[in-house]
Amino acid sequence: MRASDVLIAFSLRRYREETVRLGRLFHEAGGQLVVITDSEDAPLASIATSLIRVRTGSASYADSPTPVAAVCHLLSALTTASAKGARRRLAERDRLVARLGLYGPETPRPRTEEDA
Asked: How confident is the model at residue 116, as a pLDDT?
């Protein structure tokens, strides 16, 4: 991991433990942590290299996903523009995910007519 590696963590109200653990591991490994959250008091806010706070409040009882989607779209466009070394970063992400044990063994997908 290099200091130029960046992890973008979406950590919104209810703050999933997997996201918090992954963010902390990435930060400890020396990467830059960008946190998109709804509060400056979010668990990863204090270690974020960059903190992007989105207002998710809405007229309804449910939080609005629109600001999060807009930030995601913008960041994906910026990331795509600088994809040098993406394969290595994906491999490191896979290593961290395996270390956290987030997923069970992969099950094969059902065969379809297109597979024949």
From this structure: 56
